[in-house]
Specification:
The protein is of the alpha+beta class. Helices cover about 20% and strands about 30% of the residues. It is globular and about 40 Å long.
């Protein structure tokens, strides 16, 4: 007998999200480069390469988007299973977003503790700059900072990772 694992989001792009907490329990927030407000703050996130281990993808994306190397973080936990959001029609249909052939993104979320200093953060470490500035903030504020169509995912991230913000 063959068992198959059903993907609840077969038309969503596989992605990772990273919640990075400092020693004081604050979370790292990045402002999307060249994105007007008010909902232009988010946590690091990005695609999973074919064959890539999911946690390795999270550490790679963290390094690419923030310059923070894996030796400067420790694993705190993760959310089991996928969290997903759909792109609104105006995003899926916009010709500038040619990569949006998916209905949205499905994400595996990881929490890490930052063991470095603010000087270890380099938003220009990678050729493709994602964020133009960053700050430490409160986990409870992230759902109100994110674009509305990602808000439900961020509410779940805030709930699941609340123990790490203390």
């Amino acid at each position: 007998m063959t068992t198959t694992t059903s993907d609840p989001y077969p038309h969503h792009r596989a992605n990772v999200g990273i919640a990075l907490f400092n020693q004081a329990g604050e979370i790292w927030l990045g402002r999307r480069d060249s994105t007007p407000g008010p909902w232009n703050w988010q946590l690091p996130q990005g695609g999973i390469d074919p064959g890539e281990n999911i946690q390795d993808a999270a550490l790679r994306e963290l390094a690419e988007e923030t310059g923070i190397q894996s030796r400067l973080v420790s694993y705190l936990g993760e959310i089991d299973g996928w969290l997903a959001y759909d792109y609104p029609p105006e995003v899926r249909e916009d010709p500038r977003f040619h990569k949006k052939r998916h209905l949205g993104q499905k994400q595996r979320w990881f929490a890490f503790r930052f063991k470095g200093t603010d000087g270890d953060i380099d938003l220009k470490a990678h050729a493709e700059v994602e964020f133009d500035t960053w700050r430490w903030g409160q986990l409870s504020e992230i759902p109100d900072l994110i674009i509305p169509w990602k808000r439900d995912v961020y509410l779940e991230v805030a709930r699941a990772f609340a123990p790490f913000s203390k």
